[in-house]
Amino acid sequence: MLSRRALLGSALALSTLATPLRASGKSPVERHGRLRVQGNRIVGDHGRPVQLGGMSLFWSQWMGQFYNADAVRWLRDDWNISVVRAAMAVHQGGYMTNPSRERAKVEAVIEAAVELGVYVIVDWHAHQPEPEAAADFFASIATRYGGHPNIIYEPYNEPLPEHGWKTVLMPYHQAVAARIRAADPDNLIVAGTRSWSQEVDEAAADPLGDANTAYTLHFYAGSHGQHLRDKAQKALDRGVALFVTEWGTSEATGDDRLAWNESREWLDFLNERSISHANWSIADKDETSAALLPGAAAKGGWKDEALSPSGRLVREMLRRRSAIG
Questions:
Q1: Is 246 labeled as catalytic in the residue annotation?
Q2: Where in the sequence is the domain holding 148, given as residue range(s)?
Q3: What does pLDDT average to in each consecutive run of 10 residues of the chain (325 residues)?
Q4: Is residue 15 a part of any domain in this protein?
């Protein structure tokens, strides 16, 4: 675990970069176009591997104030993100309780991403399956927004260990994908895997039939290390593409120690394999993985004093990224 002095020193060293690195004046979507799976990589219209880097918003029912165009614009311009994840809560007062309210939050982020030229992950943020509701929701999103290459569908955030790949998850993903593909035959789908989206090797052994589906890998650097990287490598060796739609600098609880050295090991692994990633999370909750400190403004404009230690380090990591994503 890094000391507070070491963490602040790392952040200061990184902050010597005054502006994000960009290869051209083009937006990420202008550079890469529609994403597709090719072998065990995600590529753009140009046929080259694309590695996106960005941020996930927090559960929409609890941190909905950050679901706005100004926040997305700030993340693009100041944090250098190429992807934002709209984590639409399904249970615990989310979509199943108030669908119009939660959908409106997601649509605000989608429309901002389209305007700003970044990719957007539409995340069904749940641990329990709701196949009919999910299929209806994603069919509607695909019908309305599927013509935009910005859209990435994530139909099931983190299935639990008891949700078997063959018995629960394959039928679920196939049903939802069928509804998506009826309206949008082209945009990328990222399928959640068993045990909080960690059993990627299991999914790779019996992949879904959709040719443009990647598989979700989640990790929290303080809890998940080489064992999970080995599972990820096994999945890649079996020929499937992975997308880290959520990762944290903390323990799996989202809190406790800030595991930046372990995070760097993970980022090296992802960079070497062109695996896209979105950090958890844009939130001002008092916990380690939250990028913002309590009371941070809802619409961006965050100075260093509004960022948590994790937020400072992740922001500067994203600002150092080249134009690969």
A1: yes
A2: 28-320
A3: 41 41 79 99 98 98 98 99 99 98 99 99 98 99 99 98 98 99 99 98 98 98 94 99 99 95 98 99 98 99 98 98 61
A4: no
